[in-house]
């Protein structure tokens, strides 16, 4: 299905374009990224609005339909709020030369937050796929806070690119 890939392609493309279009002009690159995030909000609202129609298009069990009605809005909310700081901002920091910090934090949150929280919520507390979705959202939130603090602190500016 190609349509859900549109935001992913947009995110991938715009993570690297601002530096090429606006070299040395961080504010213009940030404005470009903000417009991308606005598109993400609009896109996620459209996907959310289509849930009732899309669940009727497929022959799925009632339990699957109810999980979809819970999982899609959860994903969309965190995709709009936390993900722009957890992923594209991290890629921007990496592109600016702050590689070690972003890679270490990504590994820490993937294993220390996402994996452990998934096992705890999904298996130990019996939440199943909802627990895994919450663990992913929690991982995005922790990573977003770490990358936002790093970005606001400005330490990433001391790295020199080739």
Short descriptors:
162 residues; mainly alpha
Main β-sheet description? none
Q: Helix- and strand-based class? A: mainly alpha
The total count of helices amounts to: 8
Report the mean per-residue pLDDT as an integer: 79
SSE order, one letter for each helix or strand: HHHHHHHH
Helix content, binned percent: over 70%
Strand content: under 5%
Q: What Rg is obtained from the alpha carbons, in whole angstroms?
A: 18 Å
* Strand tally: 0
**Poorly predicted runs:** 1-22
Shape: flat
What is the rounded distance between the termini? 39 Å
Write the layout of secondary structure elements.
Blueprint: H1 5-21, H2 26-49, H3 51-57, H4 62-81, H5 83-86, H6 88-95, H7 99-124, H8 129-153
Give an overview of the whole structure.
With 162 residues, the chain is an all-alpha fold. It is built from 8 helices and no strands. Helix 2 (26-49) runs antiparallel to helix 4. The termini are far apart. Mean pLDDT is 79; it is low at 1-22.
Quick summary:
This protein has 162 residues and is mainly α. Helices cover 81% and strands 0% of the residues. Mean pLDDT is 79; it is low at 1-22.
